[in-house]
From TrEMBL:
It comes from the Bacteria. The chain crosses the membrane at residues 23-43, 55-79, 85-103, 115-140. The keyword Transmembrane helix applies. It holds the Pfam family ECF_trnsprt. Keywords: Membrane, Transmembrane, Transmembrane helix. InterPro entries: ECF_trnsprt_substrate-spec. This is ECF transporter S component. It comes from Enterocloster aldenensis. Coiled coil: none annotated. Signal peptide: none annotated.
Length: 210
């Protein structure tokens, strides 16, 4: 009975996340991601810039909506920019889920919580993306400027695994920091009356600082 209740609770929570307002939010969040992602890809920046909308949707609608936003972002980027974004959709899905559940736990109420969320998401992104880069693309994709850094590290260390993880760590730390900073500032400027209309309302601080 407890397992059945847990399943029902999960399904009910999932339905609550995908409300009409959340469905309207999804294309907007994906659009925000696409603008940043396309810009980064076109300019060959050592960044992705495709997660701001995912964080916003995680805060406003919940983890599974954020996961869907991340997945759709990668699919659209694959269509308009580079097919290599398809396998990396796993990174975006994981980032959306982790961000959403950590926000749901109230971690966005404090600055240290935002920093912790950033670090956890960064670590998961590094592990997943590095595995994809190594096992699917042989160590480099050429999609961002980080491929140059990776190639340089491989030439210097002769170690593909360490080189990919090191370059991925540098890239993701900077990229996720920018995304979380922008999203957090935007969330603090959204009126509470608007935030309360969504399933998740965990971005408001109970105290100014901790």
């Amino acid at each position: 009975m407890s397992n059945k209740k847990q399943k029902l609770t999960f399904v009910q929570g999932l339905k609550a996340q995908f409300s009409t307002k959340s469905l309207v939010l999804i294309p907007i969040a994906v659009g925000i991601n696409l603008i940043g992602g396309t810009l980064a890809s076109t300019l060959k920046l050592p960044l992705f810039l495709d997660m701001i909308g995912t964080i916003l949707s995680a805060a406003l609608a919940g983890p599974w909506v954020a996961a869907l936003v991340g997945f759709l972002t990668n699919i659209f980027l694959a269509l308009v920019s580079n097919p290599i974004y398809v396998p990396y959709s796993l990174v975006s899905i994981a980032a959306g889920l982790i961000t959403g559940y950590m926000i749901k736990a109230g971690l966005f109420k404090k600055t240290w919580g935002v920093i912790l969320t950033w670090l956890v998401v960064t670590f998961s992104s590094v592990v997943i993306s590095s595995c994809i880069t190594i096992f699917v693309f042989g160590g480099a994709t050429g999609a961002t400027g980080t491929s140059v850094l990776t190639a340089g590290l491989i030439a210097a260390t002769k170690d593909i695994v360490k080189s990919v993880f090191a370059s991925s760590m540098i890239e993701n730390l900077a990229d996720r920091a920018i995304a979380f900073a922008i999203a957090y500032v935007l969330l603090k400027r959204i009126p509470k009356r608007f935030l309360s209309q969504y399933a998740v309302d965990s971005a408001d601080e109970d105290e100014d600082d901790d």
